[in-house]
Specification:
Elements: E1 2-6, E2 19-23, E3 33-42, H1 47-50, E4 74-81, E5 91-94, E6 101-105, E7 118-119, H2 136-148, E8 156-159, H3 165-176, E9 180-185, H4 188-198, E10 202-205, H5 211-218, E11 223-228, H6 232-241, E12 242-250, H7 270-274, E13 278-281, H8 291-303, E14 311-315, H9 320-329, E15 335-339
Parallel strand pairs: 8-9, 8-11, 9-10, 11-12, 12-13, 14-15
Antiparallel strand pairs: 1-2, 3-4, 3-6, 3-15, 4-5, 5-7
Helix pairs in contact: 2-3, 2-8, 5-6
The structure holds NADPH dihydro-nicotinamide-adenine-dinucleotide phosphate.
Pfam family, one: ADH_zinc_N
InterPro entries: ADH-like_C, ADH_N_2, ER, GroES-like_sf, MDR_fam, NAD(P)-bd_dom_sf
Protein name: NADP-dependent oxidoreductase
């Protein structure tokens, strides 16, 4: 059985040499545990935050070196169960990813409850969808937009990293709720994807010019809600473009994850006073109670063909580190997944 272990904390870009593929015996499940053969495993921007000597205070701790990553979503099939409520053949999700086989204790909270061992309905959607639109990404988009940003009728919404896993769901949920939506991403091809497939009203490539100008062109009258996946210059531009009583849901700040030291904050924060803005961070891991509601609503949109998702699939567990490096560079469109077995 193979496991991917971090062996060095990346400096700047993630390199495959920061990881090692290790052969270990298939673990034995004890009482209350199941043995899972993982089939798909998730690749997430937020992993970068834990691949550092110290993770941000209050966040999940840094991943220890020389051990498998605990706290990465994955799906697989139960091959042996000593836990009530689970049987061989069940498809499940859990948080012991980036390895072929995992022993998981039923009911043991993982990732704040979002990654606790859970049986999946694979008649409703393929297993890997539970790593994206019907999983933690769906929860993040749904909870952040509807419960954190406090969408109101008529709000104009800007989503950054809009062609990514979380962003493409945020953009679509906002459209489904009847909003005007602006999406930004890092290439012309992604802009086309946003306009043609995600269905946003306007989109721009943030590398194509000064961000405030690009945003003003896409949203001449400003925005009411900014869903922030990027931080830095994007957050600054949003604060400039928000209308009075505008709201920011801070989901993530990917532009800063590889930085050795944190960047100074936006220099225009006084506008939060003058425009009575609300800036709220959130963690999907604290919102596991919304999983049933999210699954119902997002599931219904998917079945009705009203919400679509793309996947960037990388084949082979050994390529998980390269897949993460690719995501951080922006190679992906939609959800980044590693297919461990067919
Ligand atoms: P994505 O699928 O969105 O991939 C990340 C994307 O970020 C890349 O495709 C790239 O696209 C973009 N990007 C990378 N570097 C930069 C940069 N310097 N400036 C602008 N864009 C950049 O990843 P996820 O869906 O996993 O994560 C998206 C965000 O959501 C992250 O900030 C993550 O931390 C956050 N998150 C927060 C959660 C929470 O509970 N609050 C839970 C899950 C995720 P491009 O080509 O457009 O540059």
């Amino acid at each position: 059985s193979r496991e991917v272990w971090p062996v060095a904390y990346p400096r700047g870009e993630v390199r495959p040499a920061d990881f090692r593929l290790v052969d270990v015996p298939v673990p034995e499940p004890g009482t209350g545990e199941v043995l899972v053969r993982n089939t798909w495993t998730s690749v997430d921007a937020a992993l970068r935050l834990r691949l550092r000597e110290t993770a941000p205070p209050g966040y999940f701790p840094a991943f220890p070196l020389g051990r498998p990553l605990d706290g990465v979503m994955t799906v697989g099939e139960v091959v042996a169960s000593h836990a009530d409520g689970f049987a061989a053949g069940d498809t499940v999700w859990h948080a012991a990813g980036w390895r072929d086989y995992a022993v998981v204790a039923a009911g043991q909270p993982a990732l704040g409850g979002v990654g606790t061992l859970r049986r999946l309905d694979v008649r409703a959607a393929p297993a890997q969808a539970y790593l994206g639109a019907l999983g933690a990404n769906g929860l993040t988009a749904y909870a952040g937009l509807l419960h954190v940003a406090g969408l109101r009728d008529g709000d104009v919404v800007w989503v950054s990293a809009a062609a990514g896993a979380v962003g493409s769901l945020v953009a679509q949920i906002a459209k489904l709720r009847g909003h005007r939506v602006i999406g930004s991403a890092g290439s012309a091809a992604k802009v086309r994807y946003l306009l043609d497939e995600v269905g946003v009203d306007a989109a721009f490539d943030y590398r194509a010019g000064p961000l405030p100008d690009l945003l003003a062109e896409a949203a001449p009258d400003g925005v009411d809600v900014y869903f922030d996946n990027v931080g830095g210059d994007h957050l600054r531009a949003a604060i400039g473009a928000l209308r009075p009583h505008g709201r920011v849901a801070i989901c993530g700040m990917i532009s800063e994850y590889a930085a050795e030291r944190s960047a100074p904050g936006p220099d225009n924060l006084m506008l939060a006073v003058t425009k009575s803005l609300t800036i709220r961070g959130f963690r999907a891991s604290a919102m596991a109670h919304l999983i049933p509601e999210m699954t119902r609503e997002v599931g219904a949109w998917i079945r009705a063909g009203r919400l679509r998702y793309r996947e960037t699939v990388v084949d082979g567990l050994e390529r998980a580190p390269a897949a993460l490096a690719g995501l951080l560079r922006g190679d992906n469109t939609g959800k980044t997944l590693v297919r461990i077995t067919r």
